[in-house]
Design goal:
heterotrimer, A mainly alpha, B mainly alpha, C alpha/beta, B: ABC transporter involved in vitamin B12 uptake, BtuC, 4 strands, about 70% helix, C: Rossmann fold, 7-stranded mixed beta sheet, about 35% helix
Chain lengths: ~300, ~300, ~425
């Protein structure tokens, strides 16, 4: 019990400390990676713990992002309340998607989520007058303030990202040890059996979708606030694939896997693109090799070999 | 344009799209049905077919018809071999585990795209159709003088587009005969039903899987060779066929040949027909949402059996 | 996997890489001879090497490398060589912003430059301001002059869409027809065309009778053409992306022998060969061109010089491969922007990042840019308040499969009231 808690609090402390140690470029990268890792942790709740493979998570990220951004540009709200609007938008979308998509399972579930996400992307384009279509819009630097703190300042941005990441990380840790979390894992392992044991699996799955979608939306809203840009490209298919990749690489169904996966992918692309134009080739080869030699992802492998207690 | 001719034009265009989609989706359905894996790189095999068709026709030069016929044979063959090799080298080693296969095929997708970008380049290149005559089409109306035939402005199709439709129908029939009547078809169907029992009866399941994976990719490539004289070969062209094929395979019901064909025609046509009634982006939105809702209320697809 | 051999293309690619590497490395000997041992001026080049913008990015890169070589051969900027630090942004706004950070914090670049696609510009511009790094974009969008960006973002090389479109309307209305159907992509770039052209044609006494907004993911177009009203006198088309050739071909097949007048932005056929089968119907139709792709009868020496340096023949194709068509109407702006950067740095006495704001002020002070080897597309006027340049536009007609310039607009045709004054914003 305490080992896991120590590990995760230690990780949070390490990320806090890195703020003072990292050079500017990597400092900025890590802030971004923590936001994207939050997105991946949201994805992990549904995919890693509940076994629901969604191919449309970009819609939740985008719902949070546009919920926040439009609240600023259309309603003139300050970014603090607008951030909450983003979360509310993602929660509402998760509820609708959950109620409809959970009628399906397996591959049909993948396609339904994919199609819903694509519909949201087209909707953003269709209402281009408000959303500025694919171009998107910036959130002015001057308005990115919460309680007098300038969120475009690198240090404050880093702490804001760190705070969001830490809350979601500890929340996930709490979730997987809670009774609800155990039901979710039971559903992943064998839904029929969980149902026969008397659990309301449908309700558990719906709450997984709600948590997953809302956390992903919070990441999207945070990205818009911290980096000052809201755009339709975040609602497109690649941004549904990325969290899946990060989670699978880092280790599905591990609490820190999403961070490891996002970190690994970012630096794989960043470093290889400095060396060669063919960085996507490097990424492709790395993915194939990982599936061949580390099928459970990096943290999954660590858990299997060394740390059996890793949540 | 008036409503009648407009609808007819949209349906003809839809039919051309549906023809290509049918072949691509049948390829995916075959892989899906027999091997039970999701091949995310399927769209890239489609793209490779188009790029190879450009390559073959450019290398041969001369009469476009000769180049096209050669491409029709060579491109699917090469793509099929590549896919079989990928199966043997990668998918077989991850034991066709569903999740690992997804990641591995995403990796393949990146590799294929990047290699194509580095060799073929970022431009879209056209392939000259072997023949391409514009055929104006007639329409009718009832006036004071009674029934009359006239030629509406813009209502037309090209001979090549008609050929694409015909070629798709012939290929489908051939494939159906192969599956239903030949020994290979029997082996494939047995493997699809129960691969473990098939293995127990001496069917070399591993080799069957490689064959199926290759055949699936070859079908996608064939669809691409047919479409590339209409739409150019481009290294990012694989995304759309992948999405649409997926939808078709699920709506048609897993592993159902008839379902896949019917769903491909329905979905290929619906895009065109819905565009008659709405502005383009709204039409795309509604078509996408429609697919999602069909699945929500009929998750087993139109032709799949209800789950027990 | 897909091992294919394209001897000519591969040769070009390796050649390109060699040229790129050669010009990216500061030529120590040359500058040593010039008596200067100072470090190079580093220009971070955000380039679309992958993704949807790759066809443009490749030519943007070639033009950039050619201009850099000419600048360095002539002694560099302030006696220092120019080094281009190119990074792929995948034509993605998120990666674009990351690349800017990399320029500023990792490579130690002096400025950033080069982006085309407007969503990448809009996604990256906030970071440029936060990093306090001048960001010279080459993107054609109205987003700079509209005031939605910031003081660090400038567009001194290419006229924005609003101005281009406004300059076209008088010619369209008086020579082609007054009832226009517009076909454009359904995103911001297309909406710029829709809004600004509608207003401009109405000012000429014409009207837009239908607007066909095509979803960006579309690959087949015939099904939309019946929405073109029969009364249409002129089709106005502007499409972008890999499906443009399909679009133009299907338009020809749809109309057959009874097409209305057709006026297109060359974007619909940028990097596409006019000799492609299926494009014969374009004979006699008109196109907007930023810079004439085919060398004209009255070709200037400047155009001749620029063509030779970039490696483009008289048909707008690569000297190494006549089938490899350039993005001639846009890429000149890379060349010109680099010269504006040079001019600005020299006027500001730029020595390092501490002089960045001086550089911006120096560029804001630029007004006239006379036609020259530095500005081969034509004489331009820069508006320091809106950070936007205004240049001449060309209307060409397809004659014998080549584009022949019919009319060149004056700078005044493209002027519109300022929408922003960036010089009043603090740094």
């Amino acid at each position: 019990m305490t080992r896991a808690l120590t590990l995760h609090l230690g990780l949070i402390a390490l990320l806090f400390a890195l703020q003072f140690a990292l050079p500017a470029y990597h400092h900025g990268n890590l802030a971004r990676i923590m936001v994207m890792a939050t997105f991946a942790m949201g994805y992990n709740i549904m995919f890693g713990y509940t076994g629901l493979l969604s191919l449309g998570h970009a819609m939740f990220f985008a719902a949070g992002m546009y919920g926040m951004g439009l609240a600023v540009t259309q309603l003139g709200m300050p970014v603090g309340p607008a951030f909450l609007m983003g979360i509310a938008a993602a929660f509402a979308l998760s509820l609708i998607v959950g109620l409809l998509a959970l009628r399906t399972i397996g591959v049909a579930f993948m396609i339904v989520t994919l199609m819903f996400s694509q519909t949201l992307f087209l909707t953003i384009l269709y209402f281009g007058v408000i959303t500025r279509g694919d171009e998107g819009f910036g959130i002015k630097q001057a308005s990115r303030q919460i309680m007098g703190l300038d969120l475009s300042d690198p240090t404050i941005r880093y702490f804001a990202a760190w705070l969001l990441f830490s809350i979601v990380l500890m929340g996930t840790l709490w979730l997987v040890r809670s009774p609800l979390g155990r039901v979710l894992i039971a559903i992943r392992e064998n839904e029929e059996r969980a149902k026969m044991l008397g659990y309301d699996t449908w309700r558990a799955k719906l709450s997984a979708v709600l948590m997953s979608g809302t956390v992903s939306g919070a990441a999207g809203a945070a990205y818009g606030v911290l980096f000052g840009y809201v755009g339709a490209s975040f609602a497109q298919v690649p941004y549904s694939i990325f969290p899946l990749l990060w989670v699978l690489l880092g280790g599905a169904g591990t609490v820190i896997g999403p961070l490891i996966g996002a970190l690994f992918m970012f630096y794989l692309i960043d470093l290889s693109s400095g060396v060669t134009d063919a960085y996507m080739l490097v990424v492709g080869v790395a993915l194939v090799l990982l599936t061949l030699f580390a099928p459970k992802g990096m943290m999954g492998m660590v858990r299997e070999r060394w740390l059996k207690w890793l949540p | 344009m008036e409503f009648g001719p407009h609808l007819m034009l949209a349906m003809l265009e839809g039919l051309v799209q549906a023809s290509v989609l049918t072949l691509t989706a049948l390829g995916l359905s075959l892989v899906f049905g027999v091997m039970r894996v999701v091949n995310v790189a399927h769209g890239e095999f489609f793209m490779l077919g188009a790029v190879l068709a450009w390559w073959v026709t450019t290398m041969l030069g001369g009469n476009p018809a000769i180049g096209f016929v050669v491409a029709l044979v060579v491109a699917p063959l090469l793509v099929g071999l590549m896919a079989a090799a990928a199966d043997w080298l990668v998918l077989r080693r991850v034991e066709y585990d569903p999740e690992r296969t997804i990641v591995a095929t995403i990796g393949l997708l990146y590799i294929i795209q990047q290699v194509t970008l580095m060799t073929y380049g970022p431009d879209a290149h056209p392939v000259t159709p072997p023949f391409n005559t514009r055929l104006a089409l007639p329409w009718y109306e009832f006036t004071d003088q009674g029934f009359q035939v006239y030629w509406p402005w813009g209502l037309s199709i090209t001979s090549y587009k008609l050929f694409v439709i015909a070629a798709a129908i012939v290929t489908c029939l051939g494939l159906w005969l192969l599956m239903a009547r030949s020994k290979i078809g029997l082996i494939l169907r047995a493997t699809q039903l129960d691969s473990e029992t098939a293995q127990a009866f001496g069917i070399p399941v591993e080799r069957v899987f490689a064959l199926v994976f290759g055949m699936g990719a070859a079908l996608a490539a064939l669809g691409a060779v047919l479409v590339v004289p209409i739409q150019q070969a481009h290294y990012l062209m694989g995304g759309d066929p992948l999405l649409l094929s997926f939808i078709v395979v699920i709506i048609g019901g897993l592993g159902s040949f008839r379902g896949t064909v019917v769903a491909a025609v329905l979905i290929g046509m619906s895009d065109g027909v819905i565009s008659v009634f709405f502005t383009p982006t709204l039409a795309k939105m509604l078509a996408t949402l429609l697919v999602a809702m069909v699945l929500v209320y009929r998750p087993q697809g139109l032709f799949g059996a209800k789950p027990a | 996997m897909a091992k294919k051999t394209f001897p000519t293309r591969r040769k070009i690619l390796t050649g390109m890489a060699a040229v790129g590497a050669a010009s990216a490395l500061p030529d120590v000997t040359r500058f040593a001879h010039a008596g200067s041992h100072s470090a190079p001026i580093k220009i971070g080049f955000q380039v679309h090497r992958t993704g949807i913008g790759a066809a443009y990015g490749r030519w943007y890169e070639r033009t950039t490398m050619a201009a850099t070589k000419v600048i360095n051969d002539a002694g560099g900027i302030n006696g220092r060589p120019v080094e281009i630090v190119a990074e792929d942004d995948g034509t993605d706004p998120k990666r674009g912003a990351e690349v800017l950070e990399k320029f500023a914090n990792q490579h130690g670049c002096d400025i950033a430059y080069g982006t085309l696609f407007s969503h990448v510009v809009i996604g990256s511009a906030p970071r440029a301001a936060e990093l306090k790094m001048p960001y010279f974009v080459v993107s054609e969008g109205h987003h700079v002059a509209s005031g939605m960006l910031n003081r660090y973002t400038l567009q001194p090389g290419i006229t924005d869409v609003k101005s281009q479109v406004q300059a076209m309307a008088p010619f369209v209305a008086s020579n082609l027809g007054k009832k226009v159907t517009m076909i454009f992509p359904d995103f911001a770039f297309g909406h710029n065309h829709r809004d600004f052209f509608s207003a401009a044609i109405e000012a000429q006494g014409g009207e837009v009778v239908a607007k066909l907004a095509i979803p960006p993911t579309e690959t087949s177009f015939t099904k939309y053409f019946p929405q073109i009203p029969r009364e249409t006198e002129v089709i106005y088309h502007v499409m972008v992306g890999p499906s443009v050739l399909t679009f133009v071909k299907e338009m020809g097949e749809f109309f057959g022998p009874s097409a209305p007048q057709i006026f297109g932005f060359i974007d619909s056929l940028e990097a596409v060969d006019f000799a492609t089968p299926g494009l014969e119907f374009l004979e006699g139709t008109h196109f907007w061109e930023g810079m004439p792709r085919y060398a004209q009868a009255d070709q200037t020496d400047y155009d001749k010089f620029y063509r030779a340096q970039v490696g483009v023949d008289n048909n707008g194709a690569s000297l190494d491969d006549p089938k490899d068509i350039s993005t001639y109407s846009h890429m000149f702006a890379c060349w010109e922007t680099l010269y504006v950067i040079k001019q600005g740095m020299e006027a500001a006495g730029y020595t390092g990042p501490q002089d960045r704001t001086k550089l911006i002020e120096a560029v804001e002070a630029i007004t006239d840019m006379p036609e020259s080897n530095e500005h081969p597309q034509g004489a331009k006027l820069f508006n320091g308040k809106t950070h936007q340049v205004f240049g001449p536009q060309h209307i060409s007609k397809v004659e014998g499969g080549k584009l022949v310039v019919q009319h060149t607009t004056s700078l005044e045709d493209g002027f519109y009231p300022d929408e922003v004054d960036y010089t009043t914003q603090s740094f």
